[in-house]
Amino acid sequence: MAGRTTIKAVRRRDLAFDVGIATLTFGITLGVLASHGLGVPDPSARHIDGIGVLLAMASTLPLAARRLAPFTVYLVTAAASLALVELHYPLDFPFGCVAAAYFLAVAYSGDPRPARRWAAMLAVWSFVPVAAAARAAGGQEMRGIAPGLAFWALIFVGAWLVGDRARLRRERMTELEERALRTEREAVRERRLAAAEERTRIARELHDSAAHAINIILVQAGAARLLHQRDPDRSQHAIATIEQVARSTIGEIDQLVHALRDDAAGQVPADPAALDELLDQHRAAGLAITTDLRGPRRALPRSVAWATYRILQEALTNAARHGLGRADVAVWFSRTRLRSQ
């Protein structure tokens, strides 16, 4: 709700600042009254007394509560200032009332309810006409006080306009801060989504790698069982292949789990040498492979290298599981593309 707040929302630093403003305006107002005005002293003006001090306090000290009830603060300071004028104290400038008008504009000039906004505006702009009527009722000629009243009118209008600009600037700063917070939250969300996608990709690679290794181990274990009596050498070779595949799979699983645990986005990419390693593993598992590798071997982008490796790994696994025991592999390297069959 515009123009209103709670005591809990007022911080000690803000309260100390408002108390300082109220004390300063009270001191200035009291000094003006004690020195019989800002310009040439008016012999007919009333000298400062207890009533004048109390009215000076009422016209300035309520500024300390301007964050809690800006409209009430303005009405109190305006009423006290008009009383000083009515009682013919030499109040050449209503410092407290002008400050309250500024704070009222900051609080209410942007109120979404037109009735409150217009009420605050009329309260500020009607001070000078009421003060003029009070001085006229006190027997002062309008011709002599007209320049001073015109100056007051400009000051009050300016206080409202400056307060409105201050409100707009404050709202703009608040909007920029909120936008920065939203941008930061969106960036955090994007990073979390990217991390989740990376975890999904790593989990998929872990599944593919484990399935590939288990398939080779199953094939080699069956061969070792069948050849255990007839051909002990080939049986030992199959068991050695099982050991080698299991060891390399454990290392790969450790690498993938480490990436998941540390939120690491990157891993060591599969370079061309890893393709030869993959082919040698399947040859050792008993799959007859003919290869056609063309082009210069060079480092590949991480996504391309891993995609090539996984595609070839899946194809060889399917060939060993469902094929006739042989596979033809073609990997062609060129300057701008990589083709595998």
How much helicity do the residues have? over 70%
User: Could you say which structural class the secondary elements and strand pairing correspond to?
Assistant: mainly alpha
Q: Would you list the SSEs in sequence order as H and E?
A: HHHHHHHHHEHEE
Q: Pick out the low-confidence regions.
A: 263-269
Number of helices: 10
Number of extended strands: 3
Spatial strand order of the main sheet: 1-2-3
Kindly describe this structure.
The chain is mainly α and 341 residues long. Among the domains are: 7-140, no CATH class; 269-341, Heat Shock Protein 90, CATH 3.30.565.10. The protein has helices at 12-34, 50-60, 70-86, 95-108, 114-125, 127-137, 142-230, 232-261, 272-284, 302-322; strands spanning 288-294, 326-333, 338-340. Strands 1-2-3 form a three-stranded mixed beta sheet, with helices on one face. Helix 3 runs antiparallel to helix 4 (95-108) and helix 7 packs antiparallel against helix 8. Mean pLDDT is 78; it is low at 263-269.
